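Q: what does this look like with magnesium ion bound?
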Amino acid sequence: MINTANEIKITLTSRSVNESFSRAAIAAFVSQADPTVEELNDIKTAVSEAVTNCIVHAYPNTHGKIYITASISLAGKVLIRIRDQGLGIEDVKKAREPLYTTLGGDRAGLGFSVMESFSDKLYVRSKLGKGTTVTIEKQIWGKLKAEKAPKAQES
Ligand SMILES: Nc1ncnc2c1ncn2[C@@H]1O[C@H](COP(=O)(O)OP(=O)(O)O)[C@@H](O)[C@H]1O
Ligand SMILES: [Mg+2]
């Protein structure tokens, strides 16, 4: 466990090579909270989906900025905010429905569903023409839970 709260900010250009960078950078940051492999994978997957959405939906056929802020509280609560200043979403409720996509082809329309299931809470705020902010909230329990769980009887 860390003993002080911590925060980082990263600004990226919406190029697809930066998707793997953002994933790795957030994973490296979150690692200090001593997450389990599963918790870390959940966060990496959710971040990838959000960043991919900025790249393909917020700034189609152009490149804009993606602003990421990540913080870890003293209690191990991770907050990751991914913001763009792109096209925005007309109907957020509809966009969050499984299988909803405005781009056919290889997009499955499952990005928000994945983000939701891999985080504790997912907030999406958007304004047409102004941009979108996605906030992922996840409590890191790390090995804490496993340690506190009653141990099997030792012989
Ligand atoms: N950052 C964003 N900017 C603009 N539109 C977005 C953004 N993120 C998501 N959307 C819209 O929400 C829809 C659903 O997103 P998602 O669930 O990730 O599915 P997919 O990316 O496969 O289309 C997208 O098709 C797009 O219309
Ligand atoms: Mg998506």
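The first strand starts at residue 6 and ends at 13. Helices lie at 17-30, 37-58, 92-95, 111-117, 144-148.
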